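Anyone up for a design puzzle?
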């Protein structure tokens, strides 16, 4: 958000300056929600190899 604010007020690229606040908020909110959302599901071990041991026969 700070980067967007600085870009908009100091560097002032025409596309960013002319974009309505509501549009910027929508895009920023979507990006932030992805970053703050839940992480990937825990590995249940079904794919194997999650315990750090090598499968038998792999060298």
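Challenge accepted. My sequence:
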């Amino acid at each position: 958000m700070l980067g967007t604010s600085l870009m908009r007020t100091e560097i002032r690229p025409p596309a960013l300056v002319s974009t309505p606040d509501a549009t910027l908020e929508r895009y920023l909110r979507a990006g932030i929600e992805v970053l703050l959302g839940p992480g990937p599901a825990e590995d249940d071990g079904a794919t194997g190899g999650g315990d750090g041991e090598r499968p038998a026969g792999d060298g």
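A detail worth pointing out: The two ends are 50 Å apart (CA to CA).
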